[in-house]
Amino acid sequence: MDNAGYTTLTRQSGLLSEMQSIANNIANISTTGFRREGVVFSEYVKALEGDPSLSMATANVHITNLEQGSLTQTGGAFDFAIEGEGFFMVDSPEGPLLTRAGSFTPNQEGELVTADGLHLLDSGGAPVFIPTDAGSISLSADGTLTADGRPLTQIGLFSPTDPADLAHRDGVRFAAPGGTEQVIGGAVLLQGFVENSNVDAVSEIARMIEVQHAYELGQKFLDQEDERIRSVSRTLGG
After folding, report:
1. How far, in Å, CA of 114 to CA of 70, rounded?
2. What whole-number distance in Å separates Cα of residue 7 and Cα of residue 43?
3. Which of 67, 70, 99, 102 minimizes the C-alpha distance to 170?
4. Which one, of 26, 22, 27, 23, lies nearest residue 38 by Cα?
5. How would DSSP label each residue in 108-177?
6. Which tens digit of pLDDT belongs to each residue from 73-118?
7. Are residues 103 and 180 in the same domain?
8. Is 213 helix (H, G, I), strand (E, B) or coil?
9. Is the same domain home to 140 and 160?
10. Confidence check: pLDDT of 2 > 70
């Protein structure tokens, strides 16, 4: 296979990766706190002495879209949403993770946890505790949580030190290998709301059609190139 064939193959691989990313976005249109992902294409060029240069496409870098999702009112005392920048922080076996999915419930010890049992952390990195005898729970815009008018703690808002330094751990949670910092100002916390996925169905489907068309064109080129090589081989062999 010549350079054009290898270049097309790497492009096809990248398009397949993007198609998988788009399919995952569409599958999570209704997932609370989900963040749309895209694929970054780059080009690797190798100069060969005496021969044409070799160009390869790569698409192994995923980028997370941090645009605000729409909010849905639930009325739940432990459903929280962020309006603005920042993430909630939850504790996990591999360390703290960031998320925009703000639906929590108290466990048997009175600590707020996610549906799969990960602890919500306050601004100091400690689990958020709700007294078992608490009657009215209120959350102020700055994250201060109160029970029956008595302050309990302040829910922490965090962001990655480098916005591009987010590594997906599952659909709604991220690691920040480069570290995190507290968000001071610029965000409002709402009680009784959750944030929806920021995936736009129309644009994702349109992009899927574009990628599928590009992939089909690449496959057509590979088929034609294969037939050309076979034809040359038959001619020379004859």
Report:
1. 20
2. 10
3. 99
4. 22
5. TTSBEE-TT-PBBBBTTS-B-B--TT---EEE-TTSEEEETTEEEEEB--EEESSTT--EESSSSEEE-T
6. 999 999 999 999 999 999 999 899 999 999 999 999 999 999 999 9
7. yes
8. helix
9. yes
10. no
Residues 52 and 88 reside in one and the same domain = no
What pLDDT shows up at residue 63? 82
In which residue are the tokens 């054009």 written? 4
Quote the CA–CA distance of 51 and 96 in Å, as a whole number: 51
Q: Which of the two residues, 55 and 220, has the higher pLDDT score?
A: 220
Q: What's the rounded Cα separation, in Å, for the pair 26 and 28?
A: 5
- Residue 157's pLDDT band (cuts 50, 70, 90): very high
Tokens standing for 19? 């198609």
150 and 97, same structural domain?
yes
174 with 224, same domain?
Answer: no
pTM of the predicted structure, to 2 decimals: 0.80
* Structural domain harbouring 148: 71-195
Q: How many domains in the chain?
A: 2
**Same-domain pairing of 178 and 82:** yes
Residues 188 and 214 in one domain: no
The tokens describing 104, both together, are 């929590």
Single out the residue of 102, 98, 122 nearest to residue 176, CA to CA.
98
Name the amino acid, one letter, at 26: I
